[in-house]
Amino acid sequence: MALLHYTEGLTLESGIHLSHLDIAYTTYGHFTAGTSKVVWICHALTADSDPAEWWKGLVGEDYLINPDTYFIVCANILGSCYGTTGPLSNNPATGNPYYSDFPAYTIRDMVRAHQILCRHLGIQEIYLLAGGSMGGYQALEWCMMEPELIKRVFLIATSPAESAWGIAIHTAQRLAIEADPGWKEHHAAAGANGLKAARAIGMLTYRDYAAFLASQSDPDTEKTDGFRAESYIIYQGEKLVRRFHAYSYWLLTKAMDSHQLARGRNVTPEQALQLIRQPVLVIGITSDMLCPLREQRYMKEHIPDAKLIEIDSLFGHDGFLIETAQISHHLGEWLRNN
């Protein structure tokens, strides 16, 4: 991982100015201006800047998106807790971490940070911009903001606007965090129990009924407590608490709620999609209840040069991280033809 210290800072959509901006990023391969095929990967909610780790099977040596063929870039998003400026960063005004004082930001603010890094790296063309889930939100916004820079787009398990369903889920998660007695306290463990509950809510949307039935059912018909599904959900909550922070999670879900391509552009949602002129591969997952197929079909209908692939998976929304063999097959074929 590398770190860009950008001393000019960043003015957010809200008008608030961050006087200093750190951007954590990871690259694979070698970059030569004018010749390298750049693949920029935008990550989702709680991931980091290393796609070879969290998108293993698709990104890295011996996989489709490999450093022998491509110069691969992934930046940790604004407001995360993996190196880029966020709630755990020091506030220059106080010398102490921001914690709950970190300002709200949007998907477009995340993309503006990506643009700063892109210019710093000397990249003048992105061969493929890829993103799943919230990573797709960033990719779609960047297509609108710099259409000449981006030549091809790959979107999976994502949508052109946060749905009422998604906003309701995020609201429930934030209510869980806010119910933690330590919420808004200025220390590293603030809101940890609330974050654990928020993750539990999230897990119910990342998979579906069939997935839990297949993997978490108890063969012991005499049980009255200590069920596998219960321990699994608790484990997932505790696992996230060990590696993430409640303030970042709360703000990131707020940023997701801000996602609407048509916002501020004086167009309808359909017209906003029609402005995307790059070839776009859209993949949807049949069992995805968080960002269902209707969202990807909607994009296919309105983006002029879009191809839609629907893949079967038992893993719901998490299928975009797990079904790398299917994804690689379809993405590889599409890249050969585009």
TrEMBL record:
Residue ranges constituting the AB hydrolase-1 domain according to the UniProt record: 38-320
Active site: residue positions: S133 (nucleophile), D288, H317
UniProt binding sites for substrate: R199, D318
Catalytic activity: L-homoserine + acetyl-CoA = O-acetyl-L-homoserine + CoA
Top enzyme category: transferase
Location(s), subcellular: Cytoplasm
Pathways involved: Amino-acid biosynthesis; L-methionine biosynthesis via de novo pathway; O-acetyl-L-homoserine from L-homoserine: step 1/1
E.C. no: 2.3.1.31
SUPFAM superfamilies: alpha/beta-Hydrolases
Alphabetical keyword list: Acyltransferase, Amino-acid biosynthesis, Cytoplasm, Methionine biosynthesis, Transferase
Superkingdom assignment: Bacteria
InterPro entries: AB_hydrolase_1, AB_hydrolase_fold, HAT_MetX-like
Assembly, per entry: Homodimer.
Function noted in UniProt: Transfers an acetyl group from acetyl-CoA to L-homoserine, forming acetyl-L-homoserine.
Family: Belongs to the AB hydrolase superfamily. MetX family.
Name by which UniProt lists this protein: Homoserine O-acetyltransferase
Source organism of this protein record: Rurimicrobium arvi
